[in-house]
Amino acid sequence: MAPTCFFALYWLPLMLAAAARGAEEEGGGCLGSQKCGDLNISSPFWIIQGQADKPCGPLDYQVSCNNSTGVATLRSSTDSGFDIINISYGDRTLLVFDVHRFARLNSSTDCSLPVFNTFAKLPLTFTISPSNLNLVFYNCTKAPPAEQQQQLGLVETRCGNNTFARLGGRFDGPGDYDKNYLEGCSSNSTVFSPMLVPPDGKANASRYVELVRGGFLITWGELPPPVTSSGKFTLPASLKG
């Protein structure tokens, strides 16, 4: 074999391997699609594996994956995040679950009402779908009259004296305050939780823990700018100067 041919056969595999490593490093390890449990995490969502990793998309769409449990969490919904139950890329909807709200309500030793409205825990990128119903929690100075409780469908919770839950129609975010005002119950401690009608169709405030566990839908609008292989965002042609 001629020396030139031998040299080419020896170095070619090494050169190809080095090129592949370089491409991976340039892209920051970004993948077009990744699995987290049974979920397929694809653009615009992306999974971060370590704090030193380069971003593979807008931060609002960052997902952390617990590899031991297969649970994906939407990181932009505060540090605690919402666990993702399902993603519909065609409809641009996510079914998510506020695990910390559920834990507060379901605790056998330290049950407490939620203190933050759900819409306050999401970035503006996402919108709570109006297909959700509104589960309202009240912390009152005294119990409303029995007739009013029956009329409004108020259910007393086990998370403290004079704490109640009720279903208040379709979720409307900040606009729900006036519609769900209840005399004797502080507006500062009135908290709204979106929820989907359960599969059996029986949405009753007495099932408030189960309803929170069932999750709710959020949507996202226009897709963010795409990411190049270098991990940098590219502007659409219509936005370039």
Automatic annotation (TrEMBL):
Signal peptide range in chain numbering: 1-22
Pfam families in the record, alphabetically? GUB_WAK_bind (PF13947)
Where does this chain mainly localize? membrane
> What domain of life does the native source organism fall in?
Eukaryota
Supply the source organism for this entry: Oryza glumipatula
What membrane topology was assigned to this protein in its record? Single-pass membrane protein
Which PANTHER family does the record associate with it? Answer: OS01G0136500 PROTEIN (PTHR33138:SF9), OS01G0690200 PROTEIN (PTHR33138)
Q: What keywords are assigned to this protein?
A: Signal
Q: Which residues form the Wall-associated receptor kinase galacturonan-binding domain?
A: 34-97
Protein name, UniProt field: Wall-associated receptor kinase galacturonan-binding domain-containing protein
Its Gene Ontology cellular component terms are: membrane
